[in-house]
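For consistency, the fold was encoded as tokens, which produced the following:
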Amino acid sequence: MPRALHHLDLWVAELATAEGEWGWLLASCDWQREEGALSWVHPDGTYLFLEHSPDQHGEHDRLRPGVNHLALTVDTRAELDRMRAESTEHGWHELYADRYPHAGGEQHVALYVESSEGFEVEVVVGD
């Protein structure tokens, strides 16, 4: 089956900070860093770029029209728990901590985190 999403370009304010935050998160979800670029590839072939463009203006606000968040997957609850324990030291802030791991509902096992720039990522166990 072909992948459903070809790639994502994320425009960030500060590349060095974003590289550390996103690099850790993507590696934790089995994405591989491409040598010589600020891009990561998932085993299914989907890739993600981080870039800062001179065409950017304003700050990211996930609550405005546009993309609200990305949802990535991990295989096991143990991986999710490890990510939760390590997320703060990698620049991510946990959202809905009081309802972990069922903030999305009793049948949904996920971690919700926000980057220093306000990007939200939902990490879901399984498909």
Notes: The helical segments are 15-28, 77-87. The chain has one domain: 7-54+67-125.
